[in-house]
Specification:
The protein has 3 domains: about 90 residues, Helix Hairpins, CATH 1.10.287; about 50 residues, Roll (SH3 type barrels); about 80 residues, Alpha-Beta Plaits, CATH 3.30.70.100. The chain is about 55% helix and about 20% strand. The protein has 7 helices and 11 strands. The strands form 3 sheets. Strands 4-3-2-1-5 form a 5-stranded antiparallel beta sheet. Strands 6-11-8 form a 3-stranded antiparallel beta sheet.
């Protein structure tokens, strides 16, 4: 019996020793862990508070929303890093070897993430040079749409069909950019017969443009004869509208011009060809 109880007694002693060691570690490091966790929580909320305060200050400076968001995130990140360093120091962590290790690891990560870093570099270029802004209509990289969001990694465009196009920033930097801004010019062409009173036709088109609420009166719409075609005199109709009204305005103007021409008896001719048959026997 005595021999059988020895292993059990040894296991109990080992368990008691482990519990004692764990208790000693808890007493020694428990307050430090609690303090470190408290420092991180305070840093999180303090960084958010400073970020909101900075955003309010930048709004009064009339800065672009993308720059405001970037600066706010940078400041919040710096405060989080500062409080993280304070928490590590409270735990007694030696920061010099940690910083050296992070430097070596950072070099490896940079090599592995060249595409991501090129997007970030291009994003910073876009944000600070501002070739376009949010709510402007642009055409680039064989895509076009309304700029919905500009981030460090990508730019999001929205279409009238409610779809979105996400373009990596590295695809934008260095490309030819067409920035329409917040208004677009419609380019319509309508043909009238050669017998038509051109003054009457131009006046009818101008009246249609004045009566459409989507058409902007400044810049002034352009209405002029653009082509003397084979079967018609072509009138160019080029008004400006806001970007959201572009697609709807095209349909409305086409319909209004057609109805107005019918009411005033202005003919829109069909393409015509004159064919002559020559007698080859003569």
């Amino acid at each position: 019996m005595a021999l059988e109880s020895l292993p059990i007694t040894g296991q109990l002693a080992t368990l008691n020793q482990a519990q004692g060691k764990l208790l000693d570690l808890s007493i020694e490091f428990g307050p430090r862990l609690f303090a470190a966790a408290l420092i991180l929580v305070v840093g999180h909320y303090f960084g958010r508070w400073v970020g909101r305060l900075l955003d309010k200050m930048l709004k009064h400076m009339d800065l672009d929303i993308t720059i405001r968001q970037l600066l706010t995130r940078i400041v919040r990140g710096l405060f989080l890093v500062l409080f993280l360093v304070m928490a590590l120091q409270n735990l007694g962590v030696d920061l010099l070897p940690l910083i050296a290790g992070l430097g070596v690891a950072g070099a490896g990560v940079a090599l592995a993430m060249q595409g991501v870093l090129s997007n970030v570099a291009a994003g910073l270029t876009i944000i600070f040079t501002r070739p376009f802004r949010v709510n402007e209509y642009i055409s680039i990289a064989k895509e076009e749409g309304l700029v919905e969001n500009i981030s460090l990694f990508s730019t999001t465009l929205s279409h009238v069909d409610l779809s979105r196009v996400v373009i990596p920033n590295r695809k934008i930097a260095g490309e030819i950019l067409h920035n329409y801004g917040e208004i677009r010019q419609i380019n319509l062409t309508v043909g009238v017969a050669y017998t038509t009173d051109i003054g009457q036709a131009l006046g009818a088109v101008e009246e249609v443009l004045r009566s459409n609420p989507r058409v902007l009166q400044e810049p002034r719409p352009v209405v002029q004869v653009v082509t003397l075609a084979d079967s018609s005199v072509n009138i160019g109709v080029r008004p400006w509208v806001s970007v959201p009204d572009y697609a709807l305005a095209i349909g409305e103007l086409n319909r209004s011009v057609l109805e107005t021409f019918r009411q005033q008896g202005i003919s829109i001719p069909f393409p015509q060809r004159e064919v002559r048959l020559l007698d080859s026997g003569r």
